[in-house]
Amino acid sequence: MQKKVLDNRYELERKIGEGGMARIYLGRDLRLNRRVAIKIPHSHYLQEPDFLERFRHEAQAAAMLAHPNIVDIFDVGQDGDVHYIVMEYVEGTDLKAIINREAPLAIDRAVHLAEQIARGLHAAHRAGMVHRDVKPQNVIVTPDGQAHVTDFGVAKSHLSTAMTETGVAFGTVDYLSPEQAQGRPALPQSDVYALGVVLYEMLTGRLPFTGENPVAVAMKHVSEPPTPPRHLNPSIPLGLEALVLRALAKDASQRPQDAAEFARLLNTYDQLANQATLVNQAMPRASAPAPVPSATQVAPPRTPSGGSATGRMAIPPRPGPARAPRQEGLGCGVFLVGMFILAGVLALVFVFSTGAFSDLFAGSGGGGVSPTRPTETLPPGEPTPTFTPTPTPTPTPVTAVVPDLSGLNNQAADTQLRQLQLRPIRIDAHDSSVAINQVMSQEVAPGSALELGSHVTYTVSLGPRVVDLPDVSRIQSNIAQQRLEAAGFPVEIVNEPSGTVDAGFVIRQQPSPGLRVPEGQVVIIIVSLGDVVRFPEIIGLQREEAEQILERTAGLALVYVDFQGRDRLIDYDRFRDNAVVSAQIEGGRGLLNDEWVPRGSRIVLGVKAPE
C-alpha cells in the first residue's frame, strides 16, 4: 500500500497482524497523539459490496459497545479505495498463541480469563448483539492478564454456517455451536457454547472435537458428547468440569442462559475454590494416634456381625485436651458413692439374669406360666442365659423418586407428581424455543428422593412473547437491522432494484410494521440496490444474438463493438469467430453476466475478430 497516512490523520507504522479478510496495522492518531490499531481489508475484497457492508457493520456494531473487556472502536472511514476501521490498540498476545504455548493453563488463570470474556460478551448481549465468532484468536490478553474481545465482524450477520455465500470464511468450526452447525439462528447461548470450548481448550490444551474436515467437526458438535476434561487433566476440580460440560450442552436451554450467568457461575466457582484453600490451610495438624488400650482400659463395645445400622464405619470422637485431675477433699466420698451405685447396678443385673422379674409378672393362678413367654427347662449345670432387650428401630421416612418432567405438558407433569404424592408448583415463563404449555425445567433434579408431600417446582413455557413489530421502512438497512435485532427479531435481507428508493435503504418489510408478532420471529427487509438493471447473459454468445438481447434490455444501450484479433485477445483460438468475449461500461469497469449495473449504462462489447 502506497499511502502512509489515511485522511491526513492516521499514520501507519507497521503491520502487526493479518487474517483471511484484513490486515491490522499499528498506527498513530496524529490529531489526538495516541497509538491505535487500524484494520484494512485485503484489496481483492474491495469489489465485493457484501463484504464492504459486513466490514462497515463490524465497526457500527462494536462502536455501540463500551466495556473494559471489549476492544473500543474509535473511527471508520474511507480514503480513496482504502477502507479502514480505527480501534483501540491493546498491547498483548492473542489467547490462541498463549494456549498453543502454555496449555494447559493454571486453573485459576483459565477461569479468570473465561470470566472476563463472558463479561465482555454480556455487554454485547445486553445491546442486542451476538458475537457468533468467539474463539481464542479473537481475544487479546495483556501482560497483566486482562482479556479484550475483538472482531465483531460476524455479529448478528445472520450467517447460518461458517461460510458465507461468497465462500469467505466467517466463524471457526472448532468453536461452532450445535444450533449454528444445523443452520439455526445463533443465540446468546451460542456464544456461551463457544466460550465453553475456549475454556475446555485452556484447561486441557485440546479441542473437544476434531476431524478430518470442517463438516466432520461440525457434525460432532451436533451429535457427539465431548470427552470429560478431567480425563485429559485430572487436576481440574469436579465442579469446574461440571460447569464446562454444562456450557457444552447440545441443547441451548441446558446451558447458562447468557454470558452474564456464565460469568456469575465462574466467579462463584473461583470464590469457593479460594475459600476452600484458605480453610484447608487453617486446619490444625492431625493429632498423634491414640495409644493402644492396656489391659486395665475398658475396650469399646464390639459391633455385631451384621454391621452398624448405617453400614458405615464409626468415626471416633476427636480427643479433647488432657486435663490434670483435680485434687480436692471430696475424692474419698465420691469414691464411696460410686461403689454403692456400682453394687446396685450389679444387683439389678443379677435379678434380671435369675428370672425373678419373670416370676413376678407371670400369669395369676398359683404360679402358672405366662402364655406370652414360654418357659424353657435347662439341663443341670447349664448357665442361665441373659436377657438382652431388642432396640427399637428408628422409623425410615417414606420417599418418592422425582421423575424427569422435561418435555411433558403441564397436565402430565402435574399428574405424575400427584400420583407419587408430591406437591407440584408451576412457574410460567416466556421462551420462543419451547412449545406452549411444555415443561422447560425443574428445580429438583430427576432421580432425587424426596419425602412424600414435598414440593417440586417446575417451569412451563408460555411460548414466545408477543410484541409490536417496529417500522423500519425508508431508513438505512444497517440501522434497520440494528433496531430489529435489538427488539429481538432476527433479520433476513433481500436486495432488489428500485427507481424510487436510494440504494441501501429499506423499501418494505415482511411482516408489515405495527403487527403484534412473536418475539424472535424472522423479519425480512427488502433493501434497495438503487436504480439498476441486470446485465443479460450475453458473454459467450455470437455477436448478432448478443446485440439483439441487449437491444431488448431496457435501460442499457450498446454503443460500440470492439473487434479483438490475435494480437489483443488471450487464448484467441479458444473462442469462435464473432463470439462476445467481454463487456464493459463505457469508460468504466468490466462486466459479468447477470450482474446489476446502473440504469442508462452504455455498453461496449469485446468480440473476437475473424482472421
Task: Summarize this structure briefly.
This protein has helices at residues 49-63, 95-102, 107-126, 178-181, 188-204, 214-223, 229-232, 238-247, 259-282, 331-354, 356-360, 410-419, 477-486, 543-552; strands at 5-6, 10-18, 22-29, 34-41, 73-79, 82-88, 93-94, 139-141, 147-149, 399-401, 423-429, 439-442, 449-451, 455-461, 466-468, 491-496, 506-510, 516-518, 523-528, 532-534, 556-564, 580-585, 596-598, 601-608. By secondary structure, the chain is α+β, with helices and mostly antiparallel strands.
Task: Outline the fold blueprint.
Elements: E1 5-6, E2 10-18, E3 22-29, E4 34-41, H1 49-63, E5 73-79, E6 82-88, E7 93-94, H2 95-102, H3 107-126, E8 139-141, E9 147-149, H4 178-181, H5 188-204, H6 214-223, H7 229-232, H8 238-247, H9 259-282, H10 331-354, H11 356-360, E10 399-401, H12 410-419, E11 423-429, E12 439-442, E13 449-451, E14 455-461, E15 466-468, H13 477-486, E16 491-496, E17 506-510, E18 516-518, E19 523-528, E20 532-534, H14 543-552, E21 556-564, E22 580-585, E23 596-598, E24 601-608
Parallel strand pairs: 11-14, 16-19, 21-24
Antiparallel strand pairs: 1-2, 2-3, 3-4, 4-6, 5-6, 7-8, 8-9, 10-13, 12-14, 15-18, 17-19, 20-23, 22-24
Helix pairs in contact: 3-5, 3-9, 5-8, 8-9
3D structure, described in words:
There is one protein chain. This protein is an alpha+beta fold and 611 residues long. It folds into 5 domains: 5-88, Phosphorylase Kinase, domain 1, CATH 3.30.200.20; 93-276, Transferase(Phosphotransferase), domain 1, CATH 1.10.510.10; 399-461, Trypsin Inhibitor V, Chain A, CATH 3.30.10; 466-530, 2-Layer Sandwich (Trypsin Inhibitor V, Chain A); 533-608, Trypsin Inhibitor V, Chain A, CATH 3.30.10.20. Helix content is 28%, strand content 20%. It is built from 14 helices and 24 strands. It has helices at 49-63, 95-102, 107-126, 178-181, 188-204, 214-223, 229-232, 238-247, 259-282, 331-354, 356-360, 410-419, 477-486, 543-552; strands at residues 5-6, 10-18, 22-29, 34-41, 73-79, 82-88, 93-94, 139-141, 147-149, 399-401, 423-429, 439-442, 449-451, 455-461, 466-468, 491-496, 506-510, 516-518, 523-528, 532-534, 556-564, 580-585, 596-598, 601-608. The strands form 8 sheets. Strands 1-2-3-4-6-5 form a 6-stranded antiparallel beta sheet, covered by helices on one side. A 3-stranded antiparallel beta sheet has the order 7-8-9. A hairpin with a 3-residue loop joins strand 2 (10-18) and strand 3 (22-29). The longest helix has 24 residues, at 259-282. The radius of gyration is 40 Å and the shape is globular. It starts with a strand and ends with a strand. Mean pLDDT is 78; it is low at 157-171, 275-337 and 356-378.
